[in-house]
Amino acid sequence: MTNSNTTIKIKAIARHHGLFITLSGVVALIILVGFGHYYWHQARFVLMFMVLTCLVTIFIGLLKQAEPNHSLILAPETLTFHHRHGLWQLCWQQIRSIHSVTNTVGIERQELNYVGIKLMSLDVIASSISLRLANRMIHEQKPLIQYCIHQQLITIEQGVLNFEPYMLTSGEVIKGPLAGFLHHCDILHQALGAHLFISASNLNGSIDDFVFLARNYLTNAKQSPVSS
Question: Three-state SS across 96-107?
Answer without folding.
Answer: EEEEEEEEEECC
